[in-house]
């Protein structure tokens, strides 16, 4: 019974070949300082938080204003105002969660 796999004595695809050792060296030479600390937020998490903190309250304010009987224009402006307020608060939310470092104050 023959298989498509190379025989155990076939050494053409081992890690001793130059191509494999070059890729292994490239992986080990990656700078360690650029890796995220364990448990820190990735870019997808930050965008998801922005969606939840900025867009959802604005759309909710718009929907509540429309249900309350406000016309589409004023309800849209109210929702936009809520989004701008939440946009201003978003950096402080990131700092409080520890996802962004606080600014250091310079001595005068």
Shape: flat
Radius of gyration: 27 Å
Specify the biggest β-sheet. Answer: none
Low-pLDDT runs: none
Measured between the Cα atoms of the first and last residue, the distance is 81 Å
Overview of this protein structure:
- This protein is mostly helical.
- About 55% of the residues lie in helices and about 0% in strands.
- It is built from 3 helices and no strands.
- Helix 2 (about 45-65) packs antiparallel against helix 3 (about 70-95).
- The longest helix is centred in the last third of the chain and has 26 residues, at about 70-95.
- The chain is flat.
Summarize the structure.
This protein has 108 residues and is an all-alpha fold. Helices cover 57% and strands 0% of the residues.
Q: Could you list some keywords that capture this structure?
A:
108 residues, flat, 57% helix
Question: Which SSEs are present, and which pair or pack?
Answer:
Elements: H1 18-28, H2 43-67, H3 72-97
Helix pairs in contact: 2-3
């Amino acid at each position: 019974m023959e298989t498509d796999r190379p025989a155990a004595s076939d050494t053409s695809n081992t890690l001793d070949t130059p191509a494999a050792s070059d890729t292994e060296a490239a992986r080990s030479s990656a700078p360690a300082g650029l890796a995220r600390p364990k448990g820190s937020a990735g870019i997808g998490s930050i965008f998801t938080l922005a969606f939840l903190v900025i867009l959802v309250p604005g759309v909710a304010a718009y929907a509540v204003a429309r249900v309350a009987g406000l016309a589409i224009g004023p309800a849209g402006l109210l929702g936009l105002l809520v989004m701008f307020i939440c946009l201003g608060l978003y950096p402080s939310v990131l700092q409080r969660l520890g996802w962004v470092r606080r600014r250091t104050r310079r001595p005068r």
